[in-house]
């Protein structure tokens, strides 16, 4: 994040400076914007590469053909597997929100109002998408605004179009993108390239348009959110390195796997259609065509010379290549914190029990997921904060000023593999030890425990009982 410090002693002075900066000399504003964009070129280039690899556009596709030799370009999309597996583990089940205080009417009311905003914006889908985007790019962006009917809206935005920076300790955001507009000239029209820039400050939104290197201020819109209404969801961060993609550490290994398998297929194809080497054998083209047709090789050796005819094939041991590829797969799984659930011997899914598979997934995925949750939750807190402030603006309820939004917790419900048969067997053994409610909570396909208990009682006329099936000892 770019930081610009200009010393001002109070908030009002800083605010006036910000307004003057973005509603002042357009040449200065234009240069400032271009400098911010230029400062992010390396990051954007890296993020584009991560997205290309996720989409299966790997460097192996640029492999150049070598004459008439085979030139296979095999692409194994490990990046998609890594992102989708870890995303499913953390985001398949919706994030849930609950009060961290009991019997607080105002907190309960805020939670109810917040969920209404969530429902109006399809929050589950947006949050799920933000999770995957941040996994690929290292960050995801969500924009909040008030629509023409006064409703609070939020939606995801392309992280490649954003730059975040600070001026005088105040967070700001810049969105930039290219578009075209059509201008009518002489009974025809032409496309005109346009650069769009939008600067978000704590008080206002400044919209600019640049055509032929000339910048114009289109709108200055106050927003009343009290802070920049743009939420940045980070994937994982270390000091000095913001927003790290889940794919960063495995790209070179994926390239090695693609190159090795492609070269191996080249060798196999060469062996299946090898060159015929003729040594000291004079053969005319017509004779070669005839032999090919009859599938018989018949040569006359030159007198007094050693002659030979043989196919050029690779006769080395290829087993070491398979061992190398297996090691690459395991290193890719290790460095991406993705559980290795493929059997080394069979190449198929391991036949682990539900609990064993759960432990394998939890051990590797949790190392990454726990860190992701902590930093992703910061974005969720800002989302809730923006909603609280806007609900306060629209009513006489001081959700923000009284800190009601701080009384809401978010919970990530990890999607662990389960063996339902094993769980039910354990529940049978737990009859008389655990309550029926507790046991039903352990069964993954029971969504509403109270409703399920009422259903069973209605059907049987008595509380649920786990009975042995006929024939069980």
Give a short overview.
The chain contains 13 helices and 13 strands.
The largest pleated sheet is described as: 6 strands, mixed
Distance between the termini: 66 Å
The class by helix and strand makeup works out as alpha+beta
Please mark out the parts with pLDDT under 50 across 5 or more consecutive residues, or reply none: 2-9
- Determine Rg (CA atoms, Å): 32 Å
List the domain count as a whole number: 4
Major sheet strand order: 1-5-6-7-8-9
N to C succession of SSEs = EHHHHEHHEEEEEEEEHEHEHHEHHH
Beta percentage is 15-25%
Helix content: 40-55%
- What coarse outline follows from CA principal-axis ratios? flat
DSSP strand tally: 13
Number of helices: 13
Mean pLDDT: 83
Descriptive account of the structure:
With 473 residues, the protein is α+β, with helices and mostly antiparallel strands. It has 4 domains: 1-39 and 139-234, no CATH class; 62-131 and 254-266 and 317-417, no CATH class; 275-312, no CATH class; 421-460, no CATH class. Helices cover 42% and strands 19% of the residues. The chain is built from 13 helices and 13 strands. The longest helix is centred in the C-terminal third of the chain and has 40 residues, at 354-393.
